[in-house]
């Protein structure tokens, strides 16, 4: 059985939109293609409100770990400059 291809972060792994409003403890996000998604208010980034632009990223656990490692390396490289 073939192994699945390694995931790469790209625009195809994300969806962009803006916060349209709030309904109880859910933020209503309207995506650029018109779809609406409810997202927990507690999981929103700080200082976001109505009309705030947002990007939703879909990552596997493996890809998320790779992204964290990449970020850590970039931070260390900046410190060591």
Describe this structure as you would to a colleague.
- The N and C termini lie far apart (45 Å).
- The protein has one domain (14-80).
- The relative contact order is 0.20.
- Strands 3-2-1-4 form a 4-stranded antiparallel β-sheet, with no helix packed on it.
- Helix content is 25%, strand content 32%.
- The chain is α+β, with helices and mostly antiparallel strands and 81 residues long.
- It contains 1 helix and 4 strands, in the order E-E-E-E-H.
- Nearest-angstrom radius of gyration? 16 Å
Q: Per the principal axes of the C-alpha atoms, what is the gross shape?
A: elongated
State the order of secondary-structure elements, H for helix, E for strand. EEEEH
Number of helices in the DSSP assignment = 1
Category from helices, strands and their pairing:
alpha+beta
Strand content: 25-35%
- Which stretches are poorly predicted, pLDDT < 50 over at least 5 residues? 4-9
Number of extended strands: 4
Report mean pLDDT, rounded to a whole number. Answer: 86
Distance between the termini: 45 Å
Q: Going across the biggest sheet, name each strand in turn.
A: 3-2-1-4
State the share of residues found in helices, binned by percent. 10-25%
Largest sheet entry: 4 strands, antiparallel
The domain count comes to: 1
